[in-house]
Every structure is written in structure tokens, then in C-alpha cells.
């Protein structure tokens, strides 16, 4: 199974205990896949405790700090797509660098950013 990157909508799905999303996440873990959560995604979703759903989800995930290369690439992707959403651009850039699937609640915006980067990303909508 390919790697997985969660966007903010995935974390919010965990927080609202979305049964379909939680089943998908459990299947990833059973397959030995630990989804990646870019740290900016966590920052966008986190509003202070207690956020039990997000906290439980993160125990099975890898929170990934961004680096200069990822930041520069995300900025270029924003420019190419005519977007100002750097969080979504960082999700797309991270997934592209890892060869991962994006789990998103916003396939239109993520798809537009993916298209600007060459359109090779697989998206799963939650």
C-alpha cells in the first residue's frame, strides 16, 4: 500500500468520530501504514484540548515537520495554481515527495494544486 498523507479535513473527521474515516484509518494501521500529518495540518486543526479524536488519531500517525525544500516547492505550487492556501500546498507537496495518497475533505482544492504539480496524486475523499 502506498503512503498516506492526511489533510486538515481528515483530522477533523477523526475529531467528529466519522465512522467511515476511522475504519479507513484502522485499515491503514492494520496494513502497517502510518499516515503522515504535516505539522501545519496539525496546527490548522488543533484548537486546544481536549481534542480526543485528533489525539487518538495522531498516536498512529507520523507528524512531519516541514523543511526548506518542501516550503519552497509548496510556494511554487501555490503560484502555479493561483492559490494562497499554503497548508493544502504543503499537503500536496509532502504527498508528491513521498509518493503518497492524500486523504482529504477538499478534493477540488487539493486536486487543483496536484494538477499544478503534474497531477499524479491519488486523492481519497472523506
Q: How does the SSE layout of this entry go?
A:
Blueprint: E1 4-6, H1 8-15, H2 19-30, E2 36-38, H3 39-45, H4 52-58, E3 62-64, H5 68-81, H6 86-98, E4 101-104, H7 107-116, E5 123-125
Parallel strand pairs: 1-4, 2-3, 4-5
Helix pairs in contact: 1-3, 1-4, 5-6, 5-7, 6-7
Describe this structure in words.
By secondary structure, this protein is an alpha/beta fold. Helix content is 56%, strand content 13%. The chain is built from seven helices and five strands. It has helices at residues 8-15, 19-30, 39-45, 52-58, 68-81, 86-98, 107-116, and strands at residues 4-6, 36-38, 62-64, 101-104, 123-125. The strands form two sheets. The chain has a three-stranded parallel β-sheet. It has a two-stranded parallel sheet with strand order 2-3. Helix 7 (107-116) links the parallel strand 4 and strand 5. Helix 1 (8-15) packs across helix 4 (52-58). The radius of gyration is 14 Å and the shape is globular. The mean pLDDT is 95.
State the helix count: 7
Largest beta sheet: strand ordering: 1-4-5
Major beta-sheet overview: 3 strands, parallel
Can you count the beta strands? 5
* Unreliable sequence segments: none
Cα-to-Cα separation, first versus last residue: 18 Å
Q: Fill in the CATH topology.
A: Rossmann fold
In the residues, how many domains can be counted? 1
Identify the quaternary structure here: single chain
CATH homologous superfamily designation: 5'-nuclease
Order of helices and strands: EHHEHHEHHEHE
Approximately how much beta-strand content do the residues carry?
Answer: 5-15%
Helix content: 55-70%
CATH class: Alpha Beta
Mean pLDDT: 95
CATH architecture: 3-Layer(aba) Sandwich
* Alpha carbon gyration radius: 14 Å
